[in-house]
Design brief:
The structure holds two protein chains of two kinds. By secondary structure, chain A is of the alpha/beta class. Helix content of chain A is 30%, strand content 20%. The N terminus of chain A is likely disordered. Classes of the chains: A alpha/beta, B alpha+beta. Chains A and B meet through β2, α1, α6 and α7 of A and α1, α2 and β6 of B.
């Protein structure tokens, strides 16, 4: 487990625009909490007080997520949180989508990875503005990181924002980023029982993209079985089968995006 | 893996309460954690030791109320104990179920001094 996970510690997280260098990046090596003065005098009279708090542990993240959601609503931005295992083809799918649809929509991308600028630089080569969030030892993006990244990106109104989460099917499930929809991506080179193994991610997503379907003849992946497993975790889950490499099935994905844009909340405030 | 984030969020909540109440430390903390909250007990224990160091929770007694998840079938209204997120209703075998409890992840109470 990541014992030095610095997810909620701003000091361990860096946010860098595509094309800029990562110099000055200092990974978080230890947990630093603000030291608290705890003077203890033997003669002090101690009174204990019970506080019935009943507060959600993730309430701070949820408040920040709802603040992000307000940003998106005011600016008429539709944000998608892309979650998957490493290597499912999230970045390749984004590259193809951005190239195919750049004349129809204004796009922005927030890339999440533990290290490197590689993905943001790949996205930047398509001409789309991207920032890279490096979580250091962290295993997921949280709402505060997205807020900082948004201020760095400074997106225009009426745009689509793709947030590519850290490749991890476990932890990102718990952290609302303020997104409009969550999209889980699995590829046919993985096991078709992945939805059974990692049900939380499928339970919290609205769309499941099955990628790399051009490789189906060469692998032992049963698409129907994978969908049936995912529906057990989430009976409302929608599916799109495609290949980011060959482009097969991409039209369904673009139509889905178009529907999301058409049904966004009309609360544009200038 | 995300358990340390959870522990650090608990530390944040505890420090806020200690400050608000002009206290210095937490003696006891009571947590409600559902069996379907996505928290691994062992990982939480491990993260706790590291996460509460040098904080108001360092010497606090921790009490965890583990809440067993229960679900209701949306087809036949049967209520049952659920142990896996993709478990079908034992009465009608439908997968369309909603949680009644078991997703809790909250600080129930704190004793500060």
């Amino acid at each position: 487990m990541c014992s030095t996970c610095g997810c909620s510690q701003p000091g361990g997280v860096t946010i860098t625009r595509a094309g800029e260098s990562l110099s000055g990046f200092t990974p978080l090596n230890e947990i630093k909490l603000s030291p608290l003065v705890q003077h203890h005098h033997p003669g002090d009279a101690h009174t204990s007080r019970v506080i019935e708090l009943e507060q959600d542990i993730l309430s701070k993240n949820n408040q920040q997520a709802s603040h992000n959601r307000d940003h998106f609503r005011q600016q008429h931005i539709v944000a998608f949180n892309l979650v998957s295992s490493p290597g499912s083809g999230k970045t390749s799918l984004l590259e193809r989508t951005l190239i195919d649809l750049h004349s129809q929509y204004k796009f922005y991308v927030i890339e999440g990875d533990q290290q490197t600028m590689n993905d943001a630089n790949r996205i930047a080569r398509t001409g789309v503005e991207a920032v890279q969030v490096n979580t250091g030892k962290g295993c997921h993006l949280d709402a505060a990181m997205i807020h900082r990244a948004l201020h760095e990106l400074n997106p225009q109104d009426d745009a689509i924002l793709f947030i590519e989460n850290v490749g991890n099917l476990v932890c990102p499930a718990l952290f609302d980023l303020g997104e409009h929809s969550r999209i889980a991506i699995i590829s046919v080179t993985e096991g078709d029982d992945k939805p059974l193994k990692y049900p939380d991610m499928f339970a919290s997503s609205q769309l499941c993209i099955i990628n790399k379907i051009d490789l189906l003849p060469y692998v032992n992946f049963n698409v129907d079985r994978a969908k049936e497993y995912a529906r057990r975790a989430n009976p409302q889950l929608e599916f799109i089968d495609l290949s980011a490499t060959t482009g097969q099935g991409r039209d369904s994905w673009y139509q889905w995006l178009q529907r999301q844009m058409a049904t966004r909340e009309p609360e544009l405030v200038h | 893996m995300h358990e340390l984030s959870i522990v650090l969020s608990i530390v944040d909540l505890a420090e806020e309460q200690v400050r608000k109440n002009n206290a210095q430390r937490v003696e006891n903390i009571e947590l409600d954690i559902g069996s379907m909250a996505g928290v691994e007990w062992d990982a939480l224990d491990f993260a706790w030791t590291a996460g509460v160091k040098n904080s108001v929770l360092e010497n606090a007694q921790r009490q965890v109320n583990r809440i067993t998840a229960r679900a209701r079938c949306l087809q036949c209204q049967h209520e049952f104990e659920i142990t896996q997120p993709f478990e079908p209703c034992p009465a009608c075998h439908d997968y369309l179920v909603e949680y009644i409890q078991g997703k809790e992840l909250r600080v129930k109470s704190l004793t500060v001094s």
